[in-house]
Write a structure and sequence with these properties.
The chain is of the alpha+beta class. The chain is built from eleven helices and 28 strands. Strand 22 (about 350-360) and strand 23 form a beta hairpin.
Length: about 600
């Protein structure tokens, strides 16, 4: 009996120990794993930083709405490349997509530039002639009575009565009587009439008839078209006074305007292809035979001449002409070229962002470069880049903004510095916003939103007109009014993609406007007007705010010959960057309908 109890006790104890062990294996490990995962989630939640895709300076420790625009905050992704290259700014695929970043491998190309030239057909100055009267007298008859009439050399174009000529003919008749005894006097009388352009035939007629010619005919010295009639019937003219302007239009000049910025590309001997608006469907070509050595001080252009035969009279003076020259720079060899959109200017430096790819992801490093000639939409690179390197060509300002936020080297802060946050401790966190181009992606907004945009554009056009009129006070007042109009626009009127686009554009526009009232001269306002116009162009292209057409106009000499755009409601050029000194300098480059 005792042996049975002992066996039973051992069996029960063993069963208990095994049960405890199995319970721990089953439940203990599960709870530990759950606790570990729970602790990990808590730790991850505690470490996540939330930011706004449109306002990356916002940093919060929990999800919510952006305090600026009200958009949902998103998790701030970590920067895996930061440890690899502390001077580069990394971007995730999502961030690159949002910023519309595009890259391109730097390559070499032919250094040529297509230059657009405008001009007019003009008379060949060497074939212009002034028909004058060779004697004094009263106009008795005009055989050519209107401009545009054709005259042939030797044709009688007018008749006049000249008392002096009548007297000289009578002297000739008297000298004829003593020609045998006084031949020198007779010859002198004949030479006097020849100097008044009488022909030998006319002189012989006087000697044969024995009577002076009272109605003296004036003969055309050249053949051509009368371009100006300068006398009327009955007028008294003096010797040498012009009667007609006659032009031989068998040859004409096509004179093109060449701006200072293009002078280095246009050379004598260059081929020009041109069209004439009044002769549609036909293309002409010619060679530049002459370039003015002096620039016109008013228009700031030089004339490039193309000579053309015009025996068919197809080309007429004052016709407008548009031409194209494929010009080459001094270096004919292939050179490194990059799109203009890849280059950022600071006034004294030019920079691009070089793309770097590693196992950890993609990063961008700022690179300072030296620019060569401008070639339409591209620049020649003198130094700073090598063929094959990959650079950002779109979204560069978004990359630069991210670099500033991270305290990395950027366009406005090449040495880098403290990362930007949502607080401003005395620094200007928006220092680069005035020059930051923004997206002009087309999107649709409500009529109510357009109604709020109307005052913004009204005041912008007033600012443009004031600058073109050199009116500093009106320009300053219009800039202040424009800033007030911007502040009254309700961001909630813009929905979906339009909301993000408007927040980007309005945020960039505000710094350019808010300091206008403190500027001391019109030159400073014109400097601000460059960035204001770029942003207003982006807004106009994005939202179609007006029911009328808006013209984008450009002056190639503005902004230190880099060129600058502006908006206008009228096709007529009124240059806001130079005012009255160069009011008509510029051209229409695009129409927003």
């Amino acid at each position: 009996m005792k042996q049975l109890n002992k066996t039973t006790l051992i069996t029960a104890f063993s069963t208990l120990v095994v049960g405890i062990l199995m319970g721990w294996l089953i439940f203990g490990r599960t709870n530990t794993k759950a606790n570990t995962e729970h602790d990990k989630v808590i730790a991850e939640d505690a470490e996540t930083i939330w930011t706004c895709s449109m306002h990356p300076q916002i940093r919060q420790g929990e999800p919510g709405d952006c305090p600026i625009c009200g958009m949902d905050l998103i998790p701030l992704e970590s920067d895996p490349n930061e440890e690899l290259d502390p001077m580069a700014v990394s971007m995730s695929p999502t961030a690159m997509q949002l910023a519309q970043v595009q890259t391109l491998n730097v390559g070499k190309g032919n250094v040529t530039k297509f230059i657009q030239l405008n001009g007019k057909v003009q008379e060949d100055e060497r074939l212009l002639h002034t028909q004058s009267s060779h004697v004094s007298g009263r106009i008795e008859e005009l055989t050519v009575t209107f401009t545009g009439d054709f005259v042939s050399k030797g044709q009688i174009i007018a008749r006049l009565y000249s008392p002096e000529l009548v007297t000289a003919q009578e002297e000739l008749l008297e000298a004829q009587k003593i020609a045998t005894t006084q031949p020198a006097l007779f010859n002198a009388a004949k030479q006097k009439l020849k100097k008044w352009k009488l022909t030998d035939k006319q002189i012989d007629q006087v000697l044969t008839s024995g009577q002076a010619i009272e109605s003296f005919p004036i003969l055309a010295d050249v053949s051509g078209y009368v371009t100006e009639k300068m006398v009327n019937l009955g007028d008294y003219v003096s010797q040498g006074e012009p009667i007609y302007q006659i032009a031989d239009l068998s040859k004409v000049w096509v004179l093109f305007d060449v701006y200072e910025t293009d002078m280095g590309f246009i050379n004598k001997g260059d081929e020009v292809e041109y069209t004439i608006q009044s002769i549609p469907g036909k293309t002409f070509s010619g060679t530049i035979s002459y370039i003015d050595p002096v620039i016109d001080p008013k228009t700031r252009v030089a004339k490039a001449r193309v000579e053309r035969s015009n025996t068919d009279l197809l080309l007429k003076p004052e016709m407008f002409v548009s031409g194209t020259v494929e010009a080459s720079t001094s270096t004919r060899k292939p050179s490194l070229m990059v799109p203009k959109s890849a280059v950022m200017w600071t006034g004294t430096r030019s920079v691009v962002y070089l793309m770097q790819t590693s196992a950890q992801g993609v990063s961008f490093m700022m690179r300072e470069i030296t620019l060569g000639p401008e070639l339409g939409d591209s620049y020649v690179i003198e130094s700073g880049l090598e063929a094959g390197e990959e650079i950002a060509v779109h979204g560069t300002f978004s990359i630069d903004a991210a670099a500033q936020l991270a305290g990395k080297p950027s366009m406005m802060n090449p040495e880098g510095g403290v990362a930007m946050t949502g607080h401003n401790h005395g620094g200007n966190t928006n220092s680069n916003m005035e020059t930051m181009p923004v997206s002009s992606k087309k999107t649709t907004i409500s009529e109510n939103a357009k109604k709020y945009l109307q005052p913004l554009f009204d005041n912008y056009f007033k600012l443009k007109i004031a600058l073109a009129s050199d009116d500093f006070e009106d320009a300053k007042a219009s800039g202040v009014a424009m800033n007030n109009s911007l502040g009254k626009i309700d961001m909630n009127l813009f929905k979906g993609d339009a909301h993000s686009l408007w927040m980007q554009q309005s945020t960039a526009l505000k710094p350019s406007l808010q300091h206008i009232e403190h500027l001391s001269d019109i030159k400073a306002i014109r400097g601000k007007f460059i960035s204001i116009s770029n942003l207003m162009i982006a807004i106009a292209e994005s939202f179609d705010p007006l029911s009328t057409a808006i013209y984008i106009q450009n002056c190639p000499m503005a902004d230190s010959n880099k060129g600058a755009d502006w908006l206008s409601l009228d096709k007529e050029i009124q240059n806001p960057y130079f005012g009255e000194s160069m009011l008509s300098c510029g051209e229409n480059t695009k129409t927003i309908k």
